[in-house]
Write a structure and sequence with these properties.
This protein is mainly alpha-helical. The chain has helices at about 1-10, 25-30, 35-50, 55-70, 80-95, 100-115, 125-145, 170, 180-205, 210-230, 240-245, 250-270, 280-285, 290-315, 325-345, 355-370, 380-395, 410-415, 420-425, 435, 445-450, 495-500, 505-510, 525-530; strands at about 455, 475. It folds into three domains: about 1-175; about 180-415, no CATH class; about 415-530, no CATH class. About 55% of the residues lie in helices and about 0% in strands. A two-stranded antiparallel sheet has the order 1-2. α6 (about 100-115) packs antiparallel against α7, α9 (about 180-205) runs parallel beside α12 and α12 (about 250-270) packs parallel to α15 (about 325-345). The longest helix is centred in the middle third of the chain and has 28 residues, at about 290-315. The protein is globular.
């Protein structure tokens, strides 16, 4: 196992969501036989799982043993057990066991709160304090992968974390250099991006002008400029810089910092992209100076192109496959969909051509396939981008396809019966691990035995082999009125298939992707949208129907 532990600190530890163990102390304890056994199992299992050449049966046994030990000591949380639990969560994520991972994150968050890890402990030594901080910050990153800005799913809200940002690796580990505070800056960007997501969700509910939006965006932009002033590689990460970073053990962290900074700008300025799913409502945009939209389109184009170019440079400069943070794939996904949107619906005369965008998305896909070749986390992203790029290319060539199927009335009725929470669940992004978990709403448990249709069978003739009276049996039938399974589709009418002239006003039909909200259902909206002329005339107002 010691060899796997060494590999963990060499290849996996540089990723921000795994950076909560002290390298020197942890390795020393294991070499001396003083390390916690379940922590060794969790480290080894995760490392082996990320190595495609390892035996999956052995890693599964290790992780099950570690998790069982954690459950047995559930009422007595400790730092080592919590560290092991976070690694178990990562293992469940990378192996596609998203339901287990989602539930375990709640246990981890509760354990951290029980041990007051969200508060500083100045009475402890420097290393112990930093280990506690990093454990919380890494858990916060994992929490974001599931909560995607939805407060009902957020387990580690920033408002309850009263900790300093992580220190540099140079301060944390005496033998480490070249990290230059990128972990701390990444955590700051996580907070900024989270607040931008909250702003996006709040603005989406506006039904009247919101003049403060421009000022809020300006303040976020100032925060991002301040972060840029501290970034070790500046705003542009060139191919030459990446070639140099490949010699640096902190390359994955440094490149992620750069990409996350660009993504924050994309998250911010897409608010002004009229017709984009995350854009502010029409009533808000109509009250703003049109110049803001032009600036926003330029900013989104610049930063999304930079994300894809950085990932492409990394792919072209690398002679081996690197392990990268999941957030890299998320940013690549959003950059690609922004380029696709701007190329088709942008208003600037300098907007990119279809050929350029298709080539950029192809380069992005090539990098994702290489760096995340066997990742269950990134598989939906790759499939979604492949489908979108193919449809975009077909539209360029004038290839037609059958129209999307209409939503059947029965499925529409079932959708309308759903609560707001259920609708929210269906609006998770393609990369949301909560969406990939595909939790049931519990109705099938109720349908298994319907009280209304249960028929009590009483013994009429005990001599005929009927069970005695104290053995009551039930026969059940499926109720004709039982609720149908929840349809993962949008209830918005399909304007293009029906031939209606009305512009699609809902966010579900303006574009197929929802970055933090997600794709709306099974209908192939993108190809219908591209074949329509609904966005050709930007002087036509969009109608945003009120949601029930």
């Amino acid at each position: 196992m010691m060899s796997l532990i060494d590999i963990f600190f060499e290849r996996i530890y540089p990723l921000p969501s795994y950076s909560f163990l002290h390298p020197a102390t942890t390795k020393e304890r294991f070499r001396e036989g003083r390390g916690h056994y379940i922590l060794a199992l969790a480290i080894s299992a995760l490392t082996a799982a990320l190595d495609e050449d390892r035996d999956p049966n052995r890693t599964s046994t290790w992780i099950q043993t570690a998790e069982q030990e954690i459950w047995q000591q559930l009422a007595s949380p400790s730092i080592s057990r919590l560290q092991a639990l976070v690694l178990v969560i990562h293992y469940r994520m990378v192996t596609g066991q998203f339901k287990q991972a989602f539930m375990l994150v709640a246990i981890a968050a509760r354990s951290a709160a029980a041990m007051l890890l969200n508060h500083e402990r100045p009475d402890m030594d420097r290393i112990s304090q930093e280990v506690r901080r990093r454990l919380v910050w890494s858990l916060k990153i994992v929490d974001r992968y599931f909560s995607v800005g939805l407060p009902e799913f957020e387990l580690c809200p920033l408002e309850t974390i009263f900790l300093q940002l992580p220190s540099t690796e140079e301060d944390f580990s005496a033998d480490q250099s070249g990290e230059l505070g990128s972990y701390s800056l990444h955590v700051r960007l996580e907070a900024v991006r989270r607040d931008i997501m909250k702003l996006t969700r709040s603005v989406a509910l506006c039904d009247q002008p919101f003049p403060m939006l421009v000022e809020l965006v300006r303040r976020f932009d100032e925060d991002l400029r301040e972060i840029l002033s501290r970034m070790p590689d500046g705003a542009e990460l060139t191919a030459v810089q990446i070639a140099e970073l490949l010699k640096n053990p902190w390359m994955p962290r440094r490149v992620l910092l750069h990409i996350s900074w660009h993504q924050a700008h994309c998250d911010l300025y897409r608010l002004f992209l009229r017709g984009y799913p995350e854009a502010a409502p029409e009533v808000v945009l109509d009250a703003l100076d049109p110049g803001h939209a032009a600036i926003a389109e330029s900013e989104c184009l610049k930063h999304s192109t930079a994300i894809i170019q950085t990932l492409t440079n990394l792919n072209q400069q690398s002679t081996s496959r690197h392990l990268l943070e999941f957030d890299m794939a998320i940013c690549a996904y959003h950059a690609s969909r922004l380029l696709l949107f701007i190329s088709r619906f942008g208003t600037s005369k300098d907007r990119p051509t279809a050929e350029f965008v298709i080539s950029r998305v192809d380069l992005c896909l090539a990098a994702l396939r290489r760096f995340f070749s066997s990742s269950e986390l990134v598989k939906p992203i790759i499939e979604e981008l492949q489908a979108s790029n193919r449809k975009f290319h077909q539209r360029k060539l004038g290839v037609s396809r059958p129209s999307s199927p209409q939503l059947s009335p029965s499925r529409g009725d079932s959708q309308r019966k759903l609560s707001m929470a259920a609708r929210t669940r269906q609006r998770l992004a393609i990369h949301s691990l909560l969406r990939q978990a595909e939790f049931s709403d519990g109705e099938e448990d109720e349908q298994a035995i319907s009280v209304h249709d249960a028929r009590l069978v009483l013994p009429n003739n005990p001599s005929a082999g009927v069970p005695p009276e104290d053995h009551v049996s039930y026969s059940t039938q499926e109720s004709a009125n039982a609720p149908s399974p929840i349809p993962m589709v949008s209830t918005v009418p399909n304007y293009w298939d029906s031939g209606m002239d009305s512009s699609p006003g809902s966010e579900e039909m303006q574009f197929p992707f929802m970055p933090w909200l997600g794709r709306q259902g099974e209908d192939a909206v993108f190809d219908d949208l591209l074949s329509s002329g609904v966005f050709n005339n930007f002087n036509s107002p969009y109608v945003r129907p009120t949601t029930n």
